[in-house]
Amino acid sequence: MSQSKSYNPKDHFFKKAHAEGLRARSAFKIEEIAHRFKIFKKGQAVLDLGAAPGGFLQIILGEVGPTGVVIGVDLAAIRPLGKPNVKTAVLDVLAEDFDEQLRALHQGRFDVVASDLAPKTTGTRNTDVARSLRLAGKALELSQSRGRPGGHFITKLFMGGDFEQFRNEVRAVYDEVKVVRPEATRGASMEVYLVGLRRKA
């Protein structure tokens, strides 16, 4: 298969996102996961890690409605979404003071912690997988420290390395764990999403 066939930046999902006013094709990934597992409800508080440019945020805001609260953080600035119940900030999840800065944005617990965090890829598979797992590990840590019992967890990560060990760590915290490769994932990508359902008390 030629490179142009396996990687077409303006494929069906790119065009669909543009047509629907969505900021990124990733919006369809969170939409598929949300609907398959009934993740979101009106009025929830949701943390979106790796939120730029805002594709996940657009879907989550629609799901939780005006009574919900959504916090989106990323290393890149996120263009305002024009909704009073969303706050965004430029933060590094691996910074020592991240937890403190997050608490300044939202004091309470989150019903859902969703992470689309991805490392800057080096092209060296083992390095990229290890970096991806580190970010997913931070997201899981936040779901434990800031998530509500009974709440849900979604994280992107690359397959390989200590994937099975990480899945077992998620299983220790959540009643059910699903591995999902959304339809909107690019063909050559090694990314999947782990979905933890119903955090144990």
Using only CA atoms, what is the Rg?
Answer: 16 Å
Distance between the termini: 48 Å
CATH fold annotation: Rossmann fold
How do the strands of the widest beta sheet line up side by side? 3-2-1-4-5-7-6
Note the beta-strand portion. 15-25%
Number of domains: 1
What does this structure look like?
This protein is of the alpha/beta class and 201 residues long. The chain has a single domain, classed as Rossmann fold. It has 7 helices and 7 strands; from the N terminus they run αααβαββαβαβαββ. α3 (26-37) runs parallel beside α4 and α6 (125-146) runs parallel beside α7. The longest helix is centred in the last third of the chain and has 22 residues, at 125-146. It starts with a helix and ends with a strand.
Topology overview:
Elements: H1 3-6, H2 12-19, H3 26-37, E1 45-49, H4 55-64, E2 69-74, E3 86-90, H5 98-105, E4 110-115, H6 125-146, E5 147-158, H7 163-173, E6 174-180, E7 191-199
Helix pairs in contact: 3-4, 6-7
Q: Briefly, what is this?
A:
A 7-stranded mixed β-sheet has the order 3-2-1-4-5-7-6, with helices on both faces. The chain has helices at 3-6, 12-19, 26-37, 55-64, 98-105, 125-146, 163-173, and strands at residues 45-49, 69-74, 86-90, 110-115, 147-158, 174-180, 191-199.
Summarize this structure as a short list of keywords or feature phrases.
seven-stranded mixed β-sheet, alpha/beta, 37% helix, single chain, 201 residues, 7 strands
